[in-house]
Design brief:
Blueprint (H helix, E strand, L loop, with lengths): L2 E5 L4 H12 L3 E6 L15 E5 L8 H12 L9 E4 L13 H20 L4 E7 L21 H20 L2 E7 L1 E3 L8 H10 L4 E3 L5 E2 L1 E3 H14 L5 E4 L5 E2 H12 L5 E3 L17 H7 L7 H15 L2
Helix pairs in contact: 1-6, 3-4, 5-7, 7-9
């Protein structure tokens, strides 16, 4: 792998993947929207070039990419190996059920495939979600029936299926991922883990549910490694669920974070009730992924939290 494109790069997985690839001297074309307030996260380097292009401008992406390749003085003959499509509008709150917005995301994903074809990419990797499954009591894998319960989940499922067909039409290899809960540096402030770290560092009480959910958390550095391995060894046409492969009670995760951040912090278990559609069990079956790619994890949850807390304390200085 010599050169890749990443849309939605300012998110936690995108940033981790960019770092992982740079360390392996893979050229990264970082696609970011013009009005992104997180654009400063991307630092141009010998191995990273920046292309400004919003989802709505995806039809212009191929022209802008080659302009950046020429500006960087990179070898055009190398082409582009993998197109990682992470960009998505409406991932939090009420926007997840904004059906018009979610429907637009599907169209943007198809345009991303077209851009990948115009750029001569050999492989398109799309970022789906556990939300495609809905609620399921058991380990998640591609053979599990899907019943998404949000506009976001429905759109991700639709995008996954439509990009598969579009990739076949355009002659590009295709892999779809269904990603579980990822945490790490650059994660959003409104996520449970980041919210908890922030409150505990300030000595504030952290309110939550009773913490009975069985959950699968994946550190962003591990997610980056998984994405890299998919680009090198993933089997075309497959859908992979990405997680740690292990479920633990949410309360156990919370206690680990408290012990690392602030052992005396107050936890308000039960202060927040479960939502009507609360997912109580979430765990990825990664056996097929491991078999195909040879993946071996490096980070425990505890180690990932320590890295995340270190980044957080430096970022808020």
């Amino acid at each position: 792998m010599k050169r890749v494109i990443i849309t939605g790069i300012t998110g936690t997985i995108g940033m981790a993947l960019m770092k992982y690839l740079e360390e392996r001297r893979v050229q990264v074309i970082a696609v970011v929207r013009k009005d992104s307030n997180r654009r400063s996260r991307i630092k141009e380097s010998e191995y990273t070039g920046i292309v400004v292009c919003s989802l709505a401008e995806m039809k212009e992406l191929s022209h802008r990419v080659w302009a950046e390749v020429r500006r960087k003085g990179w070898e055009e003959d190398w082409g582009i190996d993998v197109f990682y499509h992470f960009a998505w509008d409406g991932t939090f709150g009420d926007s997840r059920d904004d059906m018009y917005l979610q429907n637009m995301n599907v169209a943007y994903a198809l345009e991303a495939v077209d851009a990948a074809a115009e750029l001569g990419c050999r492989l398109f990797i799309g970022a789906g979600s556990q939300a495609e499954f809905g609620r399921y009591e058991g380990k998640l894998h591609a053979g599990i029936p899907v019943f998404p319960e949000s506009g976001y989940g429905i759109a991700k499922l639709c995008a996954g299926q439509m990009t598969r067909i579009q990739c076949e039409k355009r002659g590009i290899s295709y892999i779809w991922t269904r990603i579980l809960s990822v945490y790490g540096p650059y994660d959003g402030a409104d996520t449970m883990i980041m919210g908890m770290i922030g409150k505990m560092l300030q000595g504030e009480k952290f309110s939550c549910t009773r913490g009975e959910q069985m959950w699968d958390y994946l550190y962003s550095g591990e997610a980056a490694k998984m994405m890299y391995l998919l680009g090198k060894r993933g089997k075309a046409g497959k859908i992979y669920c990405l997680g740690s492969g292990t479920a633990r009670p949410l309360k156990e995760y919370i206690e680990i974070i408290r012990n690392i951040v602030n052992p005396s912090a107050e936890i308000g278990y039960g202060d927040i009730g479960y939502s009507p559609k609360q997912v109580m069990h979430l765990c990825a079956d990664i056996r097929e992924f491991v078999m195909d790619t040879g993946y071996v994890p490096e980070y425990t949850f505890e180690a990932g939290i320590k890295e995340t807390v270190k980044w957080y304390t430096e970022a808020v200085k």
